[in-house]
Automatic annotation (TrEMBL), chain A:
<keyword id="KW-0809">Transit peptide</keyword>
<comment type="similarity">
    <text>Belongs to the ATP12 family.</text>
</comment>
<comment type="function">
    <text>Plays a role in the assembly of the F1 component of the mitochondrial ATP synthase (ATPase).</text>
</comment>
<comment type="subunit">
    <text>Interacts with ATP5F1B; involved in the assembly of the F1 component of the mitochondrial ATP synthase (ATPase). Interacts with FMC1.</text>
</comment>
<dbReference type="GO" id="GO:0005743">
    <property type="term" value="C:mitochondrial inner membrane"/>
</dbReference>
<keyword id="KW-0999">Mitochondrion inner membrane</keyword>
<keyword id="KW-0496">Mitochondrion</keyword>
<dbReference type="InterPro" id="IPR023335">
    <property type="entry name" value="ATP12_ortho_dom_sf"/>
</dbReference>
<protein>
    <recommendedName>
        <fullName>ATP synthase mitochondrial F1 complex assembly factor 2</fullName>
    </recommendedName>
</protein>
Automatic annotation (TrEMBL), chain B:
<dbReference type="GO" id="GO:0005739">
    <property type="term" value="C:mitochondrion"/>
</dbReference>
<dbReference type="Pfam" id="PF13233">
    <property type="entry name" value="Complex1_LYR_2"/>
</dbReference>
<comment type="function">
    <text>Plays a role in the assembly/stability of the mitochondrial membrane ATP synthase (F(1)F(0) ATP synthase or Complex V).</text>
</comment>
<protein>
    <recommendedName>
        <fullName>Protein FMC1 homolog</fullName>
    </recommendedName>
</protein>
<comment type="similarity">
    <text>Belongs to the FMC1 family.</text>
</comment>
<dbReference type="InterPro" id="IPR037667">
    <property type="entry name" value="FMC1_homologue"/>
</dbReference>
């Protein structure tokens, strides 16, 4: 009887095993289907690298596309991934090329920005984005000063005042700084000037600019960086001025402070590059040498 | 990388980053060729203060910052935040303890 029980056990085990194998096969089919659909709104953060080569190609209309191993890259919304100029396409292709084994989407900042600009998932138009960007002016980092400790007050005056003077001179506006909780009173002409200036950027550049403003929490620093008055490292340092002061006083924690700083630098650099590439146009004029 | 004032230093640093990304065959990538081409194009200028040159230098500094900070961010992430779930043995080893062993097997096994 024991032998028949063992035989029954074996047979049941085999059917269970084959059923599991069938499930595994279905699972693999599902993964394959997902990779083909490339809808990475599924937010499973471990996707294997499914391509070997990354190349770019130019389509009619002058737009550039990215090819992963013969297949064209698409945005999460399903649209074809097109960029207006070659430099941005090469930078995005480098990002995709830099992935090893698994795709880490949180490192591909330029691709994320392009996807946002192409899909426009929140369905905003230019005016809404300009209003959202100008809202940050009322609570701008540079405008908020502390009153004590005196070393920090002095640091803020030394570092932030030149930027404030620069932007007031460059745009011919008046922005004050204040140390109370309500913040400075921004006059309406200032906002109009900025609104006019922001209107001159195209939609892609505006997407990038709003991203940078959200990261740095400051309109003034973003303008300073886009207008090439500050470098990315300087802008990030000025944005984190109080944190840097505290780090100097209390010490640096590598897995928090450095981690945040590098992430902020990466995102800000990506946003700045995106804005600059999206609003540039280059022409080559050759000077003919006259003999 | 004390002071990246000259375009030569920026160019070298960008190429070093690209090499760190790809490996030995970084010279065939599009980014390598594009970067070198851009640096060569902006080298010769007839004016003393060429605005396009300064703008290109700023853009190259921005790209260098992007590459190096993503690399360092990834390194810190892998160092501190990437372990995930550790097994019970490793968790005990964090404080210097070991898991108990029972040579005859636990009572309900076997």
């Amino acid at each position: 009887m024991l032998r028949s029980l063992v035989a029954l056990h074996c047979r049941i085990g085999q059917t269970v095993l084959s059923h599991q194998r069938h499930n595994v096969q279905q699972h693999q089919n599902l993964i394959h289907h997902l990779q083909n659909a490339r809808c990475y709104g599924m937010a499973s953060s471990e996707r294997r690298k499914f391509y070997e080569d990354v190349s770019i190609s130019q389509s009619e209309g002058g737009m550039f596309e990215i090819n992963l191993d013969r297949r064209k890259l698409k945005t999460p919304g399903g649209k074809l991934f097109t960029v207006p100029n070659e430099a941005l396409a090469i930078a995005v292709a480098t990002e995709w090329d830099a992935q090893k084994d698994t795709l880490k989407f949180y490192t591909m900042h330029l691709s994320t920005l392009c996807n946002t600009a192409l899909d426009n998932p929140t369905q905003r138009n230019k005016e809404q984005m300009i209003e959202a960007a100008l809202k940050y002016l009322e609570t701008d980092t540079i405008c908020y000063r502390v009153e004590e400790p005196p070393a920090l007050v002095e640091l803020q005056n030394n570092e932030w005042n030149p930027v404030m003077e620069w932007i007031e001179k460059r745009y011919n506006v008046v922005i004050g700084s204040s140390s109370n909780i309500m913040g400075p009173e921004i006059p309406e002409e200032t906002k109009d000037t900025f609104r006019q200036h922001l209107n001159s950027y195209n939609f892609w550049a505006l997407t990038g600019l709003e991203y940078v403003i959200t990261q740095l929490k400051s309109v003034i620093l973003s303008f300073g960086m886009i207008d090439r008055y500050l470098t990315v490292e300087q802008a990030v340092l000025l944005s984190r001025l109080e944190e840097e002061y505290q780090i100097k006083y209390w010490g640096n924690v590598e897995w928090a402070h450095d981690y945040d700083m590098f992430e902020l630098r990466a995102r800000t650099a990506a946003g700045a590059l995106f804005v600059q590439l999206a609003s540039e146009s280059s022409t080559v004029k050759r000077k003919i040498l006259q003999d | 990388m004390a002071s990246l004032n000259s375009p030569l230093r920026v160019c070298r640093s960008i190429l070093r980053e690209l090499r760190a990304l790809k490996g030995p065959e970084y010279k065939q990538t599009m980014a390598y060729n594009y970067v070198l081409e851009q640096f060569r194009k902006n080298q010769v200028t007839g004016e003393r203060y060429c605005r396009a040159q300064q703008e290109a230098l700023h853009s190259s500094l921005t790209y260098l910052c992007l590459l190096s900070s993503t690399r360092q961010h990834m390194a810190l992430h892998n160092l501190y935040h990437a372990k995930g779930e550790i097994s019970a043995e490793d968790a005990a080893g964090l404080v210097g303890l070991r898991l108990p062993t029972q040579p005859g097997g636990k009572g309900w096994e076997k």
